[in-house]
Amino acid sequence: MCKFSQVVWQGELIIMPPTGGESGIRNSELNLQVSLWNRQTKLGYVFDSSTIFKLPNGAKRSPDVSWVSRERWEALSIEDRRGFPPLCPDFAIELPSQTDNLPKLQSKMHDYLNNRLRLGWLIDPQTPLVKIYRPNQDVETLYFSEQTPPTLSGETVLPGFLLDLAPLFNL
């Protein structure tokens, strides 16, 4: 049986199919790198795309990879932790799959920012580019090639974290 995800986008229910193989590999790689950093630092909690967050504006979102600081997570009640956490992650990564619409993902990233996201990355290996989202700043766009993929810094949000994008191309 196929599992379809239901997403409410600007008041419209969108049924989304599961990701394909390459997107699944890339999502797993991203989650692995963030999780390994977090295991060492113990600064917060990492979530995969199956977690839905209820943002302060009422929107429900599930980034491909997200992270919430320990302080913010532990301030939630047990009931809130077990359900859809009523907060916006501190950090989020979106990775377009074959069925995703890039302008909608860009809008989604701005939605996160408007709800207290501290750092966000929209990583598109097909273009290939990375859009970096920070509060009160213009979106920064980095273009790269398979031969010279960038390493992204977690800045002050994920201190000491460096994301190696090279594995996203070695499929």
From TrEMBL:
Short name of one Pfam family: Uma2
Domain (Putative restriction endonuclease): residue spans on this chain: 9-165
Signal peptide extent: none
PANTHER family attached to this UniProt entry: SLL0198 PROTEIN, SLL0198 PROTEIN-RELATED
Name assigned to this protein: Putative restriction endonuclease domain-containing protein
